[in-house]
C-alpha cells in the first residue's frame, strides 16, 4: 500500500505570495492532518480534516487554510507569505481520525522557503 | 495547554542501549507515541502505548510509562548507527468531537558512535 505523498517536495516563494501544498493520504484513510515544523517552534498542529470538514484547528493565523476533497486528498494554502512561514510542512493521514490508536502516518513533507 | 518536554541530545556507543526520556503535562493523554525523523525525511512511527499500560515491548524497542509522574521513556537495545536520528515523543489527549491532534516534544537528537 502506498504511503502518504506530498507535492511538491520543495518550494521557494517570495514574501507576499501565496502557496498551495498537496497531500494524498494512504488509500482508505479519511483523516488528514497538517503540521508545521520549524527549528524554533518545533512541530505544531495546523488543522485536521475529516470527510471534507475541518474538525480541529491549531493556533495559526487565518492566512493558513485548507480543504479536503471527496477522495480525501487535502490541500493547504498559505496566503501573503512571511519569512517566518519558511518551514517543513508535514501531512499525516489516519483511518478515521478518532485519535488514540488510530495511528497517524506522515508523508515526507514539503520544504517551503520564503525569501 | 499541553506541554511535552524532552532532553535535546543523547550520544551512545554502538551496541549499547539508548534511553530517551519524555515528560508531559496533559493528564487526559490517552495514547503516547514515539516517532523517528531522519535528515530530510518525514516522521516514522516507531511505537505507541495506551495510557493504561505500563510497558510495551516491540523487538529492540521498550516503552515505559509512569502515568503518575507523566513520564515516558523509549529504550533502544543494541543501538546501531542506523538509529541515529531525532526522536519525538507525542501525546494525544481527549478532544471534544473526536479527531487527531498530536502534541510533540522538542525532539531528542540521538547520535550513535562507533
Q: If helices are DSSP runs of H or I spanning 4 or more residues, what is the number of helices of chain A?
A: 0
Rg over C-alpha atoms of chain A, rounded to the nearest angstrom: 13 Å
Structural class of chain B: mainly beta
Oligomeric composition of the shown chains: heterodimer
The coarse overall form of chain A would be globular
Largest sheet of chain A: 7 strands, mixed
What does this structure look like?
The complex is a heterodimer of chains A (115) and B (114). By secondary structure, chain A is mainly β. Chain A is 0% helix and 52% strand. In chain A, strands 2, 4, 5, 6, 9, 10 and 11 form a 7-stranded mixed β-sheet that branches. A 4-stranded antiparallel β-sheet of chain A has the order 1-3-8-7, with no helix packed on it. Chain A is globular. Chain B has 114 residues and is mostly beta strands. Chain B has no helices and 11 strands. In chain B, strands 2, 4, 5, 9, 10 and 11 form a 6-stranded mixed β-sheet that branches. A 5-stranded antiparallel β-sheet of chain B has the order 1-3-8-7-6, with no helix packed on it. Chain B starts with a strand and ends with a strand. Chain A binds chain B through residues 4, 31, 33, 35, 42-45, 48, 50, 55-56, 58, 90, 92, 94, 97-109, and chain B through 30-31, 33, 35, 41-45, 48, 50, 88, 90, 92, 94-95, 97-107.
Amino acid at each position: 500500500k502506498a504511503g502518504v505523498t506530498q507535492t511538491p517536495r520543495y518550494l521557494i516563494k517570495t514574501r507576499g505570495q501565496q502557496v498551495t501544498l498537496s497531500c494524498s493520504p494512504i488509500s482508505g484513510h479519511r483523516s488528514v492532518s497538517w503540521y508545521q515544523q520549524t527549528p524554533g517552534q518545533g512541530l505544531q498542529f495546523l488543522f485536521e480534516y475529516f470527510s471534507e470538514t475541518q474538525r480541529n484547528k491549531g493556533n495559526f493565523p487565518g492566512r493558513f487554510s485548507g480543504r479536503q476533497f471527496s477522495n480525501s486528498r487535502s490541500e493547504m494554502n498559505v496566503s501573503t507569505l512571511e519569512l517566518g512561514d519558511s518551514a517543513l510542512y508535514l501531512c499525516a493521514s489516519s483511518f478515521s481520525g478518532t485519535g488514540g490508536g488510530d495511528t497517524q502516518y506522515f508523508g515526507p513533507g514539503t520544504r517551503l522557503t520564503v525569501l | 495547554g499541553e506541554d511535552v518536554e524532552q532532553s535535546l541530545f543523547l550520544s551512545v556507543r554502538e551496541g549499547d542501549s539508548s534511553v530517551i526520556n519524555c515528560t508531559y503535562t496533559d493528564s487526559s493523554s490517552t495514547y503516547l507515541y514515539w516517532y523517528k525523523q531522519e535528515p530530510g525525511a518525514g516522521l516514522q512511527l516507531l511505537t505507541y502505548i495506551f495510557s493504561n499500560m505500563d510497558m510495551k515491548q516491540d523487538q529492540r524497542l521498550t516503552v515505559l510509562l509512569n502515568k503518575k509522574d507523566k513520564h515516558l521513556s523509549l529504550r533502544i537495545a543494541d543501538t546501531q548507527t542506523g538509529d541515529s536520528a531525532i526522536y519525538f515523543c507525542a501525546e494525544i489527549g481527549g478532544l471534544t468531537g473526536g479527531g487527531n491532534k498530536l502534541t510533540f516534544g522538542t525532539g531528542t537528537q540521538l547520535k550513535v558512535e562507533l
